[in-house]
């Protein structure tokens, strides 16, 4: 027998058939159960990939501190995987994120610094604060948005897993963009094996990637979203050479209705980013007809969003009752 620590068990998550929308569309719509990673989200893959590359480059050693600007899930992954490998974590997080995330990060042992939510163009954006702290204190800045170890982790793991789990029958891969690592790394691998596998972006309203992929514009202002951890406003290094075959706008009400339906009918308890992804998979199935195998990402569970997404009063106040 061979035994391993926690960091060995990132990845190799199952594909779950989303029964209701698969039956309704005549497609096989499958969700990669990334909430089954040790830190509870798809971001564990990026965290492990970034840490391993930094170790290889001599940037991390026992007792080092990792600092990162994150909406939460990457911070959780960096914290638990970092602890498993001997590192401390400092997390800079926009104060608009779900209070459950901030409390969880602190419970896990990270030093958490909530800051006002500001755009990337502002010098006090949470990413810039993380970069400055790294330079001032000699910490390692994970830099998930522009660190290509992020997408490489998905090229090395998520893509091969999906190809193997579908026995090569996958027709499309659908994912929203946060840093871009998941969509870019996974789809680059899949297309390297079969160029006909479609790369599909599901974008929330208010994010810029739909405009970039459809019109090469980053300045379209078409609304807003409550989604956390997705909705990029710039072309990061992880996506600057990514070719997307189809891009969809998915509104919050659709995404919330989908995750509530999946909880009620299939026992899946998911966050809003998963709903955006599933909405994109559903749109692709509707546009391309039955018989397709479509894979998307179930990013995390609804546990960190109970005060909002699963709170009837909050849903009613925001006109988002499913």
Element pattern in H and E: EHEHEHEHEHEHEHEHEHHEH
Low-confidence stretches: none
Q: Work out the strand percent.
A: 15-25%
The main pleated sheet reads as: 6 strands, mixed
User: Taking Cα atoms only, what radius of gyration do you get, to the nearest Å?
Assistant: 19 Å
What's the arrangement of strands in the largest beta sheet?
1-2-10-7-8-9
Question: What's the tally of helices?
Answer: 11
Distance from N terminus to C terminus (CA atoms, Å) equals 48 Å
Record field, number of beta strands: 10
Q: Approximately how much helix is present in the residues?
A: 40-55%
Principal-axis shape: globular
Structural class: alpha/beta
Write down the overall mean pLDDT.
95
Enzyme class: transferase
EC number: 2.5.1.47
Cofactor: pyridoxal 5'-phosphate
InterPro entries: Cys_Synth/Cystath_Beta-Synth (IPR050214), P-phosphate_BS (IPR001216), TrpB-like_PALP (IPR001926), TrpB-like_PALP_sf (IPR036052)
Textual characterization of the structure:
One of its GO terms (molecular function) is cysteine synthase activity. Belongs to the cysteine synthase/cystathionine beta-synthase family. It holds the Pfam family PALP. By secondary structure, the chain is an alpha/beta fold. 40% of the residues lie in helices and 16% in strands. The chain contains 11 helices and 10 strands. It has helices spanning 19-25, 43-56, 73-84, 99-108, 126-137, 149-165, 181-193, 209-215, 252-266, 272-288, 312-317, and strands spanning 15-17, 28-33, 65-69, 88-94, 111-115, 140-141, 172-175, 198-204, 246-250, 293-298. The strands form 2 sheets. The protein has a 6-stranded mixed sheet with strand order 1-2-10-7-8-9, with helices on both faces. The chain has a 4-stranded parallel sheet with strand order 5-4-3-6, with helices on both faces. Strand 7 (172-175), helix 7 and strand 8 (198-204) form a beta-alpha-beta unit. Helix 2 crosses helix 6 and helix 6 (149-165) packs across helix 7 (181-193). The longest helix is centred in the middle third of the chain and has 17 residues, at 149-165. The protein starts with 14 loop residues before the first strand and ends in a 5-residue tail after the last helix.
């Amino acid at each position: 027998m061979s035994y391993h620590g926690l960091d060995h068990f990132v990845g190799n998550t199952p594909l779950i058939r989303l029964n209701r929308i698969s039956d309704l569309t005549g497609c096989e719509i499958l969700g990669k159960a990334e909430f089954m990673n040790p830190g509870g989200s798809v971001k564990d893959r990026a965290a492990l990939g970034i840490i391993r590359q930094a170790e290889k480059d001599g940037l991390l050693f026992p007792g080092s501190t990792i600092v990162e600007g994150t909406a939460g899930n990457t911070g959780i992954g960096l914290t638990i995987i970092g602890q498993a490998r001997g590192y401390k974590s400092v997390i800079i997080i926009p104060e608009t994120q779900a209070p459950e995330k901030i409390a969880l990060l602190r419970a896990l042992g990270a030093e958490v610094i909530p800051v006002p939510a500001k755009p990337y163009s502002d010098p006090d954006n949470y990413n810039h604060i993380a970069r400055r702290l790294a330079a001032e204190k000699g910490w390692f800045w994970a830099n998930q948005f522009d660190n290509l170890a992020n997408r490489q982790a998905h090229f090395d793991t998520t893509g091969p897993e999906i190809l193997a789990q579908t026995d090569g029958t996958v027709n499309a891969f659908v994912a929203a963009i946060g840093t871009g690592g998941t969509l870019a790394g996974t789809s680059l691998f899949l297309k390297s094996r079969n160029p006909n596998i479609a790369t599909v972006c599901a974008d929330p309203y208010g994010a810029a990637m739909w405009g970039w992929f459809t019109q090469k514009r980053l300045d379209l202002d078409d609304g807003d979203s409550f989604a956390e951890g997705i909705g990029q406003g710039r072309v990061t290094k992880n996506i600057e050479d990514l070719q997307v075959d189809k891009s969809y706008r998915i509104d919050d009400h659709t995404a919330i209705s989908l995750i509530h339906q999946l909880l009620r009918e299939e026992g899946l308890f998911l966050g809003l980013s998963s709903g955006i992804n599933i909405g994109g998979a559903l749109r692709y199935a509707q546009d391309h007809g039955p018989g397709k195998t479509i894979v998307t990402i179930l990013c995390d569970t609804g546990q960190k969003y109970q005060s909002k997404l699963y709170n009837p009063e909050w849903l009613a106040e925001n006109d988002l009752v499913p």
